[in-house]
Structure formats: structure tokens, C-alpha cells
Amino acid sequence: MFLHRKELAYEVKVDDPNPVFARMLQQAIGGVEGEMRVMNQYLFQAWSSRGPERYRDMLLHTGTEEIGHIEMLATAVAMNLDGAPTSVKEEAAINPVVAAKMGGQDPRHLLSAGLGATASDSNGVPFSGSWVIATGNIASDMFANVHAEASGRLLATRLYEATDDAGMKDMLSFLIARDTMHQNQWLAVLEELKSPVPVPNDFPEDKQNQDFAYTFLRHSEGAVPSDARWTSGKSVDGRGEFSEEEGRPLGSVPNLAPAPPEVHDGLEATSNGGGVIHKVKDAVKN
Amino acid sequence: MFLHRKELAYEVKVDDPNPVFARMLQQAIGGVEGEMRVMNQYLFQAWSSRGPERYRDMLLHTGTEEIGHIEMLATAVAMNLDGAPTSVKEEAAINPVVAAKMGGQDPRHLLSAGLGATASDSNGVPFSGSWVIATGNIASDMFANVHAEASGRLLATRLYEATDDAGMKDMLSFLIARDTMHQNQWLAVLEELKSPVPVPNDFPEDKQNQDFAYTFLRHSEGAVPSDARWTSGKSVDGRGEFSEEEGRPLGSVPNLAPAPPEVHDGLEATSNGGGVIHKVKDAVKN
Amino acid sequence: MFLHRKELAYEVKVDDPNPVFARMLQQAIGGVEGEMRVMNQYLFQAWSSRGPERYRDMLLHTGTEEIGHIEMLATAVAMNLDGAPTSVKEEAAINPVVAAKMGGQDPRHLLSAGLGATASDSNGVPFSGSWVIATGNIASDMFANVHAEASGRLLATRLYEATDDAGMKDMLSFLIARDTMHQNQWLAVLEELKSPVPVPNDFPEDKQNQDFAYTFLRHSEGAVPSDARWTSGKSVDGRGEFSEEEGRPLGSVPNLAPAPPEVHDGLEATSNGGGVIHKVKDAVKN
Amino acid sequence: MFLHRKELAYEVKVDDPNPVFARMLQQAIGGVEGEMRVMNQYLFQAWSSRGPERYRDMLLHTGTEEIGHIEMLATAVAMNLDGAPTSVKEEAAINPVVAAKMGGQDPRHLLSAGLGATASDSNGVPFSGSWVIATGNIASDMFANVHAEASGRLLATRLYEATDDAGMKDMLSFLIARDTMHQNQWLAVLEELKSPVPVPNDFPEDKQNQDFAYTFLRHSEGAVPSDARWTSGKSVDGRGEFSEEEGRPLGSVPNLAPAPPEVHDGLEATSNGGGVIHKVKDAVKN
Amino acid sequence: MFLHRKELAYEVKVDDPNPVFARMLQQAIGGVEGEMRVMNQYLFQAWSSRGPERYRDMLLHTGTEEIGHIEMLATAVAMNLDGAPTSVKEEAAINPVVAAKMGGQDPRHLLSAGLGATASDSNGVPFSGSWVIATGNIASDMFANVHAEASGRLLATRLYEATDDAGMKDMLSFLIARDTMHQNQWLAVLEELKSPVPVPNDFPEDKQNQDFAYTFLRHSEGAVPSDARWTSGKSVDGRGEFSEEEGRPLGSVPNLAPAPPEVHDGLEATSNGGGVIHKVKDAVKN
Amino acid sequence: MFLHRKELAYEVKVDDPNPVFARMLQQAIGGVEGEMRVMNQYLFQAWSSRGPERYRDMLLHTGTEEIGHIEMLATAVAMNLDGAPTSVKEEAAINPVVAAKMGGQDPRHLLSAGLGATASDSNGVPFSGSWVIATGNIASDMFANVHAEASGRLLATRLYEATDDAGMKDMLSFLIARDTMHQNQWLAVLEELKSPVPVPNDFPEDKQNQDFAYTFLRHSEGAVPSDARWTSGKSVDGRGEFSEEEGRPLGSVPNLAPAPPEVHDGLEATSNGGGVIHKVKDAVKN
User: CA E39 to CA D70: how far, in whole Å?
Assistant: First the structure.
């Protein structure tokens, strides 16, 4: 179960409210790189965890921390909406700064949320549960988590540079730091797992087509750089030897059985009589 | 530009068609772990690549390879739909095997696709472009790619074990092998990048709140295991020293400005006269 | 900020795991009536709250409680997936009970989640942030909340009757009770607001078209029941008198200006010469 | 079945077309608070109604009325798009008013719809059938309907204040009035139902965990206001007595069974030999 | 504005209710081939129509007719849900027919809709406004409409053959007939337009790259059939002469400018010192 | 399987980068009229094709061509983002041209993609697999394809006129030409099919309700134009004679069976005693 403390996890102050920045912050709330995603991702991973406890607990600690980050960002959005334009009356747009705000703000911040945050990204696209990754495989999930924090930190640094508001910069410097830690902690789990790749690491090698497990297949033109790490030498997982070759078909031309009549494939004779299609029909294989 | 060869990248045969397995295969086509996602992910990463060429090219090779995997799986779906039930007439369901098929197949395989594959996952949820990750940061993208291949290989192994069809097992043994290689090749890029973490690795440390960059914050109960890699010792990125502490609020209780009248917050005096809400209204801070 | 306790908010036990019931429980996690929706709804309402504090605090209490309900349900899903079929091999389906499970379970429970819960509804449709209602108007939000708890309790009672598992029934009897309380507490706020309707209750009546503010307009056939509460007598909001009349057009036939050429409306003369469309074009009004 | 009359339900005139306002009006067409939602909601409730006829009929009257409101708003969008910018050529943007329009308009109004309305909200997010609530429980549906009209009227008042176009204000004054009536009529049904809460009102009290049915559980800090309606006194549904207490865990720490091998949880011994994970693995409970 | 008549547009009777067929019927309500799509498509096309009146009116007639088809199908779904299983208790599944129903029915029909229809397709995927096509070009829209009716009629025939319920077959024979008429009427408009293709038919030919306007480009292997209508002879639009050639690149290898520093592309020198990436970085073109 | 060539299918140059045009180009990548849709549509149609080979091959040629168009457009987006604003600092907005860009650009182009393309439309709405039409009926699919190319060409012409960048105009003149060819080639297939309508063309006429197969039903007011092609004369499919009549109900008023108790329809007697609802309940038919 969960408990709440009234203070924010970190201070949130906005010196100069900007509704366009409010819109950008939405990416960090309800975007694919955002806090709703990591919160749910870590908690669902924990709730589905069938052991070991050390990782389940770790996920619960950090998943819970992330709820507080959503809270910080939602607060920051509301603060950035103070004084935002609430009309599209033309006289208001004579000033280019106001014009930029009228053009660049999220209309739903006013219309749907009354100057508050939404559970959406910076284009108003709603948060989707499909972004929540919890596969039941610890290594796969850790790679997902490292990526989530990598793209989250990348987003936070881009937001940092997009604003000159001191309060916002301070808040972001904290979130950037937390994303540093979180990247490191998921990597630490991968380190503990010793040989996590290839994920899953327990599928029997004799059931895998070994001929193609460590070969880089070229499907575009040109030579691969001679010093490429991925075409020669020991594979990163330590289980094979990299090689490379030209991609070529290993299968035959597919040939599906004809459709049964109840599918109505559109190729039946018609009352108008035949034409090319009948010749065609006759020529259909099998 | 792209070219097509008529033969499949690898042989696809189905010995004993099974519409429930056809539905499961959809996860590998249009699901979040599927081939449509990796194809688009690698190609969009390449198309947005502002260098270096070695990675751009590599992404183009493998992104192109993945289109052929979608082709294989779509073919496998169609083959598994041969002879699938095309009615829900009750007499057909007397046999439990048929009953399982009628219950477990995707109704759109017949109704919308005429016994062919769709651009959807195993629950019929359409493929979403929101799953395509291309951040413009090579390290972030590589972690996304390792995860994509990890969850893809995990899916393929689960499918492998869910069927006893020799043709399907052979096809999956090839896809599993390719996912092994692809995990390795994205990891090889990360190896070449030397110190990719924390992503992005060029954000100035003095703009990050260093006090919280390597500290595990506990937000749940209980002690962290004494041998945890993530609470002491050098951080995985080699730039800090892990520590841990109890999560505590570092900010104050948030206090937003009152809403302007045009937001209509619902707290205005009404013609019916007051009550608690008026006392409440008087007490609203700032 | 938020904290976590390791014990569940209420006991979760499953006596006889059933993967079809696991799928049904997903509706209560990631469905439109589910706990992810109410958790986010109450918290976003709180985070956007510009006062009064009593309601902001109340929302924080209950929004936090709901996270624990997601935790309970996700645990229940995982427990119901113990022993679920992990293959579609035909011999397994000889037993009708197994056949029902193979047909009725969510394939992603195995394929994507490794026998754990997902952030989706009972059809695998992902949770959507668009379901999170936080309008910035306290009365509007309270009606949304009453409905959310009404449909949530309805769902829980239907789940209660769909199972004969004692553990699940006990868990649901608790969730049903909480939904009772939550319905009551949102209604209590509406009671405190004294005259919340029509929402928003501060829009000037002289700017509303008063002629149609309390009139039931008939757009279907037949008389309205003579004892209908909504066609005569004082309106429920106490501000008007109900009446009824036949719906009739109050506007004119719309007539849009022609499209500018760069829209390419498809009506231009073509090199093939005219026909009906030219007569048509000539006849286009304005 | 349905019939159409050519005149609009109410007059729609635009004095000064504004493409940014056209975009805002989309929220009232295809947004979660919009007319497509209420139209479908009332009609689906009617079509699924298993009695009584008085409510089924009422829903059909008003659901049909709402189709005409979509028609009005779609007409208003098209009228507001007269003269909208159809290029992004830079010289056009020298005027800040034009700049605001170029920034703030929906690009799909030109590109996809040729200066007409779309079935989307003000951010271009498509209308979703998931917003259509029809639960089969009359009381639950009525609360959904009151909320739908509350948020719809709130949206209409915000639109009213965002424009100074006399035609648009007149149209909105009518829609605002209809939303007043519709709120009242759904409330009138709830009044007729006498004791609709807790919804559903016929679930046996002895199957509900009565200990928690009227208790406000605190999950955040601080005391609840002493005059709070929801912590003491008779419950609003008249069936219980409000109380309050500190939220505390009533369950135990969850402990899931280990995953079966075909899930590939990532914890197996590897050919590289062990490390922490092996110790970890040994320690996994049950 | 719209009016409603209480009788259905055509008789709806179900002799033998079947919840699996109810699920399949959902495809015709809220699926991409369904009635919600055509209703909205025709009405939005009409509402955005800037003339001529004859087509605007025609769209209004048929768009209105389609609302009545949704009504029929929603009624049919509810009737097919009479007696549907409302539990997943195992003893109920002993009969294979019941097992098929338990597996094959839509769980939300019970859980969310109380045995009524939803605004979703046969997999429970919600209707999406993105399927509503209204481009502002009459010819483009007519092709969209012909396709909508073609896939709709195809769906209806597949449903017809999937059931042996006489009432359902009769209802579908009516819907199939209406789809016949609707295909014909949209084709009649195309006939009136004389030379609608290429759509849009008024884009100046000298601004189109004429070298590639009538050439079939081969991007796969093998010869095109010698009697192919699309590689020689007059083009179908009567404006060109078909030819064919091998697809070949007409552009150069793309080469994007390097990313500005605030994008953080991941290629900066790090405190750990260089490696391959530095050589790589030096080699980045422009 | 697929191969890639490094050069673009056609030259892509941007003389004067414009981030607002970059946003508009997204419609042609990930929008419903865009290249991701046609690429997938043609390839899925091919992969599900059960013959004849001539059409399967044709679809593979053109589907493969379309991948190269996505590549061109993604390159064009990236080029248009060179020099795009990367901050919302107010001083930057003093120039109205910059203000228009800041307002009109897609924030995710910077935040999520680091100045590259996304798999989304011009409003940031992700590409959806639900737009990919492959019905298993050749005629239905060809109409879908003609429409896809019609709306695609319409979009390209609107983009052509929205820009004055010579490079972009040249690229679009090529894409416009290809859409001309593609419209023609799908029409050529329909010509070969001789009598494709009504689709599907092999459903037995005696199972269709012939009384309504060629009758235009009026559901709106007013006379149909006397020269309307769709109300008299031979039907376009050559199989019937057009007529017209007033729409009228052919069915009865629907009357569903009462809900079973486990649905909880909200109409049960309550402990508070009756009221109108009890009279109502008594009056429920059947």
C-alpha cells in the first residue's frame, strides 16, 4: 500500500510562467519518455515479480519515487499556466510574444483542464498503457528501464536548455540527477546478473539456429567498416564469434492455398462474363 | 530506396495449421515486441541520423532485414489460418478442440482480413507509431534497441514452446538466432561508445544536482540488501560513488494561485446562498 | 511525495487460479472503470487544484489509496495465472475446461508479461490517459468521480458473481466497500457545494439562452410520460421551471463559401470536357 | 430509425472567421467533453436499455438532439476556416496576427479536411469509442451523463469567453442552455430512482465488507477538517455512518510462486558461471 | 437537425442467442468497416461540403440512414447476449459449446456494458475518429465511400455465412442489399464527375513530374505479365500512356547536417577518454 | 526479403529549412493519408494474397517502392528542422517569423526526436495499424488503394502549394506523379476484374434482399435532383435498375428482455422504499 506526504519531493518554483513551456513539460508527464511510464513500468514489474526479493523491493522503492516526480511536474505545469492567454481575440495577438504563446500552447490546458496538467504528452496525445513494459524477464526489463531513464534524462536536458527560468532549471537539475542514478542502478542489476545476454539467457543453444546467431547480415550496399566491433571478434555476450555475410533468401517463394468460398476473394466468375480475370483465375497456382 | 526479392528470408512451413497460434503470432508482427516496431525503429533512427555513417549504415542493413521478418510472420499467420473455423454455428463446437479454436482465434482474421494477417497484436490492438523510438541520441537508441531485441527474443522463445509444429519451430529457431545477433550488435555499438552513460553523456556535471546523482533513495520499507551493487562502491558509469538514504521531501507543500474567473472553478457564490463552501472559499490561501 | 509499505492494503488470496478470471480482472486495473483511472483522476485533480485545501487534501488521500488497489489487483492477476496453459498444442484442448481457458485467456499474459498483469483492460486495450478527468471545476470533477466509483463498483459486483473463488470474493468484498465509501465522499462534497448545478454555476444567466435552458426537446416520437419529473415542475437545480416542446429547427440551411483553389475540391473542369458536373458547378450557390 | 431536416437546430453565423477558434471548437466535436461522445453515449444507453421505456425513450430524444449539435459545430468549424492561411511561406508571417494563426491552427484542417471539421479534439486526437459509457445500470449511466453535460457546459463557457465573435457567442449561448437542461433532466432521473446510491444499489450488504464501507481512510498527512461532511454523520446514501481512520495494511506481503521455465525469467545459471545472482536465486522464497 | 422514429429501420430478431456472434457483430458497429464509420464519414463530408448541393444532400440522406443501421446492430448484439454466461466458474465449462462461448465472448459485454453493445470492434478496440474520411475533395471521398461500402458488404456476407440463425440472416440480407445500393450510388457520383482521376483532377500537369506519372516502377524481381493492363496502352485516366521500367535511385545518398549541441547526440568526448567513437566522430562528413 | 540502396529514390533538397513545414510533412509520413499506410497496406495485401500471382507481385513492387517514399519524407523532415528553435525563451519570439515557428512546430521534433522525423501525423498522433486495409478481397482492396492514393495525392498538392521552397516543390512534383500512376494502376486492376461491383461480387443475389438493393432511400427532406444518376436508370454495376423512395421503418419497436440480476441494472427496490421507479418497474414490458 502507499502513503503520501504533503511536501513535494523537490522544490518547484516558476519565476516567469510560460504556457509554451507548460506544453513542453507535458512530454515529461504523459509522453513515452515520461514519468507516468516509468512509474507504472517499475511498479508493474514489481507486482509481477516472482523473485528475487532484492529486485522486487528495488523496483518498489523507485517506482514509488516516480509518483512524486509526476506530482512535481504536474505542479510545474499548473504554475507555468498562470496568466496564460484564455482567449483568441485578435487584438491580443498584436504582440509577437503573445502570438507565439497563443500559437504554441496546448488548447486543452485551458479548455479541458482549467489551467492544469493533463495525462498527455506535449502534443496532447494521451498516455498509453502500451508503453508500460513488464516482461517477466529481469534482464529484458532492466534494458527497458535503462532506456526509459536514458530517454527521460535526454528529455530533461533538452527541457533544461529550452528555458531560462531559474526555478525550472533547478527542478530539472534534480530530475536529471535522479535519472543518472536510475540508469546506474538498473545497470547495476545487469552487472549482478553476470551474463544476461542474449536475453533470455536460458534458451537452449541447440534449439537456436546457430548458423545465424552471430552473423551480421548485410541488406544494404557497401562494405562494413573494417574496424567494426560487430563483424569480427568475440561476440559481446561471449558465446560466439562475429562474422558477416550478404543477406540472401533462405526460403522459397511463398504460395498460399486458395481462399475458401466464404471469404469472397473477389475472383469468382460474374454474370457479366469473364475477361482477363478469368484467364488469371485459371492460372492461379494450386 | 528499397528492393524486394520474391523468396522469403527463411523458409516458412506450417504442418498443422492452428488459428489460435495464428493469433499468437500477431504479437510478433504488430505487438510492442514485434517486427513492425523494430523495422520502423531502426529505419527512423537511420533516417534521422546526423552521423556517424557507420551507425547509420548499420541501422539501414538491419532495419531492411526486419521487413523480411514481417513478411515471414505474415505468411505464417496466413498458413495457420488454413481451415480455420469460419462460423460460430453451435454444432461445430461439440469437439473441445474446435471449441478452443472458436474461442481463441482472432475474429478479425476472418471478418476483416479474409484469413490473413493484420497490422495488430495478439489482442487485435493496432500497431502504434508511438512505439517507434528514435531519439537522436545514439546511446539512448542503442539501449532501446537492445531491449527491443530482448523482448522480441523472449516472445519468440515463448512462441517456440507454445507450439509443437515442426515448421513453426524451425522458423522461430531462425528468428531467435537473429535476435541473438541483433542484441549483440547494438551492444557492440555501446562498447564502441566507451562511456555512453549516463545518457546523454555530455550534459555538464555542474548543472546536474550532484547531491542526488548517485544516491539510492528508499521510498519503501526495509533495509536494502547489504551486498547490493547499487548502494555502495563506484557507480557503473564510473563517475560517482553509490550511496543510499531514506527518501524525504526536499520541497514545500505546493500552493497554486487561484483560478481566474473564466476558468469557472465551481467555487463562486450561488443564488441559493452559501454553506460550507463559502467558509471554504474564504479560507483559500493566496 | 509518496511512500510504500510492503504489505498489501488488503489480503489477496486465490484458491483456484483461473486465467480467464485473470483476464476479467484486467478490466479493474486498466479498463475505463478501473483503478488506474481513478488513481490518476484523483491525483491529477489534486495536483491542479487551486483551492480549497480541504478538497485538494481529500483527493490526495484517496488517490493514494487507489495505487494500493492497483497493487492488489495486479497481484491477483499474477496469482490467477499460476498454472495457466502456456501452449496451444492441440492435445491439451481435449478437456473442455482447458479448451475454455485456452480460448478465453489473454495471450499477452503469457507472451508479453510472462504470467503477470498488464496496463490494459480485459480485451488487452491499453489504459488511456484520455480517461483521466480533471477539469479544474470542482463540481464537474465530483460528478466524474461519483460515476467512476459507480461504474467501478458495478464492475466489482459483476466480478464477484463471476467467480466462486473464496479468496477473490473476499478481496472484491473489500473493494466493493471502498467504492461505497468513495461514492459517498464525492457526494458529500457536492452536498457542501450547496448549489453546484448547473455546472459551472457561475456563468451569468443573461448570457445563457434562457428560452431553452429548462425545456425538454422531443426529437423522437410519442408523448412523454405524464408523471415525468423532467417536463414540469421546478427544475432540479432550483433555478427554472421545466417545460417540454417538439424539437424544431431554429437555424437556417447552412451554406458554406466555395473552397479556394488550393483545396482542390474536385469540381474543376477537366481536359475531358464537361457533363453533369458542369451544370452542377454552375448551380453551386454563392 | 432516423430522419434529417435540412435546417440547423440553431443558427450558426461567424462574423470574423478565426482558424485558431476553429481548432478550439474541435474540442466540442470530437473531444472527451464533446458532442460525439454524448450523442453516442445516450444512444448506446438507449439501445442497450432493457427497460423501463420512459428512460429508454428519454435517451433517444436527447441522443438524437445531440447529432444536430455536432452538425452545428462542424458547420461552425468550416465557417471559421474561411480565409485561413493555406501556406507556411515566411512572408505571410510578418504580421503577428497571421503568425499566431499559422502557429495555432490545426494543420489537418487544411491538409486532411480541405478546410472542414474532423472527428478529433482540439489537438487532433481522434474521437475514441472508449469514451462512450453505457453500463447497463441506469444510475451509473445517469451520473456519467450529468458529468458529460457538466464538462460539456464548462467547455462551452470557456469557448464563449475565448471569442468576441457575436455569432459564435450566440450559438454557444444556446448550447450552454441545452447543457443546463440536460444536466437537470439526468438529475431528475436520479431523483425518481429515490435511492440510487451506492451504485449498484441492490448488492447485498452482507457480501460487502461493512467495516470499510463508510470509513474515510487517510493515506496522506494531517488532520481532516473538523467540519468535513465525509468523516462523521450519516452517510449521503443514508445507509451508514461516516467515520475516519488512518490507512494501514490489512494484507500481507505478497509472495508469488516462481515462474515456470517456459516463461524465461532471466534467472537461470549461465555458461559464464554465477555471481550474485546465484546467491540471489538460492534465496528466492518458495 | 435530426429526428428519430421508434421502429427500427428493418426487423431484428434473434432465434438462438449466441454471445460469440454478438462479439462478431461488434465489427459491424465499431470496426473500421462498420456503421459508425460510414455514418460519421458521410455526415462529416456533408457538413464540410462547400457544394454542390446535390452531393451534400445525398450524403445527408445516406449518413442519416446509417445511424439507423447502428441502432439495428446494437439491438442485435443485445439480443444475442440473452442468456450469455455471466461467470467463469469451471463447472460451467464442462460442455464444449459453453466452453467455446466462455472463451469466445467479449468479456466487456458483461463487465462494462451489462449485456449490451459497445462502441468497439470485435476485439474490443474502440471506434476511432481517425477512420472518418472527409477530405474536402468529392472524388477522393467517393472512392473512400465505395471502399467503405465494399468492405462493409464483405463483412456482412462473412457474418451471414458465420451464422445459421434465421433472424440474423434476414437482417444481414437487408444490410447487404443496402451496401449494394450505396456502392452504386457513390459510383454514380464518380460517373457524373466524368474525369475524376487522377485525384485531384485540377493540379496542373506541368507541375507534376510527367516522366514518372504513367510508369510502372518495378521494385521486386521478375517480369510483369505481358498482358498487364497497367504497363502498356492508354492510362485509365485517359491522360497518359502506360510504360514500365526498373526502379532505380534518382537521388543521392542523404547527408544531414550535424546535430546542434543542445540535441545531445551522444557522440561527445567523455571524461573516460576516447576510443573508436572519436575516430568515428572525426570522420563524420560535413 | 528486402534490400536497400543507399541513394534516395528521388532527390531531396531543402533550400530554406522551415520547422512548420517539417510538421506538415509528417502528415505524409505517419498520417492516415501517408506513406506508412500505403506501404503497409500494399505489403499486407500481398502477403495475404491467395492468388493470382499477377496482383500479388504488383502489390510487392509498389509496396516496396513506398518504403523509399517514407525514407525521402523522413529525410525532408530532418532537413527542414535544421536551425529550428530549440528554446522557448521569450526574447527569441520578438520576431513574428520566429514566433510563428515557435508556435507552429511540433515540440516532439526537438524533445523526443532530436530534430528528426517521428512515426506520427502532423498533430503528433501516432501512426495506427488500424489504417492498414487488407480484406482478402481484391476488388475491395483496390478501391481502398485508389482512395489511399487519391487522398495521398491531394495531400501532396496541398503541401506543394503551402511552400515556396524549390527543393520541396521538386520532391513533391515527383511524389504527385507517382500517386497519379498508382491511382491508375489500381484502377487498371479493377478494369481487368470486369464486374467487380457490388463487392463481393459472388454473393448469391437470392440471399440479398433484392427489394432494397437498388433503391435510394431518402432520410432527409426535399426532392432528389431530377437528373440524379443514382435514382433512375440502370445501376452502375449493371445488375439492377435504380429507384428511389422515402425511408420508412420496416421493423418494429425493439423490446429487449429484462436484465438478469447479476447485471445490476439499478432498478431494484431499495431499503428507502419506492417512488416512481416502482411504478415504472411494474410497467416494464415482457
Answer: 13
CB contact under 8 A, C264 and F227: no
Per-residue model confidence as pLDDT tens digits over C47-59: 999 989 999 999 9
pLDDT band, residue B99 (cuts 50/70/90): confident
Q: What is the CA radius of gyration of chain E?
A: 27
Three-state DSSP at C126 gives strand
> β-strand C243-246 against C215-218: which pairing, if any?
parallel
F265–chain C nearest CA distance, Å: 9
Average pLDDT over residues C225-238: 96
CA distances from residue A26 to A70, A80, D69, F111 in whole angstroms, order as listed: 10, 11, 31, 11
Q: Which three cell numbers stand for residue B157?
A: 522463445
Query: E133, E135, E113: which is closest to E22 by C-alpha?
Result: E113
CA distance D193 to chain E (A): 19
Planar angle of CA B177, B182, B183, nearest 5 degrees: 100
Interface of D with E in 20-59 (CB under 8 A): 30, 36, 40, 43-44, 47-48, 50, 57
Q: Which residue has the higher pLDDT, B128 or B270?
A: B128
Q: Cell numbers at residue B13, please?
A: 512451413
- Angstroms from C37 CA to nearest CA on chain F: 22
Nearest to F127 among B64, B115, B129 (CB): B129
Burial E65-77 (b: 16+ CB within 10 A, else e): bbbbbbbbbbbbb
The whole-number average pLDDT for the span D201-222 is: 96
Q: Residues 6 or more apart from A206 whose CB is under 8 A from it?
A: none
Q: Between A and C, how many CB-CB pairs are < 8 A?
A: 167
Q: Who contacts F223 (Cβ-Cβ below 8 Å, separation ≥6)?
A: none
Question: For cell 458465420, what's the residue?
Answer: E162
Neighbours of chain A (3+ CB pairs under 8 A): B, C, D, E, F
Residue B23 and residue C139: Cβ atoms within 8 Å? no
Distance from CA of A285 to the nearest CA of E (A): 15
Of C2, C52, C96, the CB nearest to B96: C96
Tell me, what's the ipTM? 0.94
Of A36, A64, A135, the CB nearest to C112: A135
Cα dihedral B151→B153→B156→B157 (10° resolution): -110
Three-class DSSP category at E176? helix
Grid look-up 443485445 returns E78
How many whole angstroms separate alpha carbon C145 and alpha carbon C158? 20
Confidence of residue E98 (pLDDT cuts 50, 70, 90): confident
Exposed e or buried b for every residue in F123-144, given b needs 16+ CB within 10 A?
bbbbbbbbbbbbbbbbbbbbbb
Least confident stretch, A165-179, C178-192, E161-175, F266-280:
F266-280
**pTM for this one?**
0.95
Whether the pLDDT of residue D284 is over 70: the answer is no
Contacts of B111 in chain E (CB under 8 A): 24, 27, 31, 33, 122, 155, 158-159
Q: How far apart are CA D62 and CA B78, in angstroms?
A: 46
Cα–Cα distance, B29 to B77 (Å, whole number): 9
Q: A270-275: list long-range contacts, CB under 8 Å, 24+ apart.
A: A270/F194, A270/F195, A270/F201, A270/F202, A271/F195, A271/F239, A272/F194, A272/F195, A272/F238, A273/F194, A274/F194, A275/F192, A275/F193, A275/F194
D270 pLDDT above the threshold of 70: no
pLDDT of residue F192: 95
E233-267 residue pLDDT tens: 999 999 999 999 999 999 999 999 999 999 999 98
Of the partner residues F177, F216, F236, the one whose CB lies closest to the CB of residue E213: F177
Q: Which DSSP state fits A211?
A: G
B146 CB-near residues (< 8 Å, 6+ apart): A143, A147, A197, B183, B186, B187, B190
Q: Please give the single-letter amino acid code of residue F132.
A: V
